[in-house]
Amino acid sequence: MRVTNKPxxxxxxxxxxxxxxxxxxxxxxxxxxxxxxxxxxxxxNYLRDGNSDKPCLILLDLNMPIMNGIxxxxxxxxxxxxxxxxVVVLTTSDDQQDKLNSFNLGVAGYVAKPVDYRHFVxxxxxxxxxxxxxxxx
Length: 137
Hints:
Keywords: Phosphoprotein. InterPro entries: CheY-like_superfamily, Sig_transdc_resp-reg_receiver, TCS_response_regulator. The chain is an alpha/beta fold. The chain has a single domain (3-131), classed as Response regulator (Rossmann fold, 3-Layer(aba) Sandwich), CATH 3.40.50.2300. Helices cover 42% and strands 15% of the residues. The protein is built from 5 helices and 5 strands; from the N terminus they run βαβαβαβαβα. It has helices at 15-27, 40-48, 69-78, 96-104, 117-133; strands at 8-11, 34-37, 57-60, 87-91, 109-112. Strands 2-1-3-4-5 form a 5-stranded parallel β-sheet, with helices on both faces. β3, α3 (69-78) and β4 form a beta-alpha-beta unit. α1 crosses α5 (117-133) and α2 (40-48) runs parallel beside α3 (69-78). The two termini are 14 Å apart.
C-alpha cells in the first residue's frame, strides 16, 4: 500500500475478522498502520477528527451495529473532504442489493471474505498489489 505511509482504516465489528485482516496484511508485508473502528459511526468520527491522519484506503464491512457499511458509505460520499478516499467493501454478504448499493455509492471494490486463511491472504495481497500500483491523486 504505502501511499506516503498513510494509515488504512479498517471498519469491522467482528474481532476475529479484524485480527485476520491485520494478520493477513502483515503477512503480505503491508507496513501501513491499521486504524480499527468497530462501526460506521466511530469510523466517521475518526475521519472527521482534524487530528486524525486521513487514510489511503478504507476496508469496510457492511453488517455492523449502530451504523452499517451502506450508511457509512452514504455519509462519506456526501462529504467533499472524504469522498475521494478509496473504499473496498470486505464482507461476508453476497447480497446483490448490497453489491448494487455499494457500487452506486462509489466503492472501489467489493470483495467476499474467504473462509480459508490462505485464500484470505491472497485477497489481501491482491488488494495491496492493486493499491500499490494504482496512481493516486
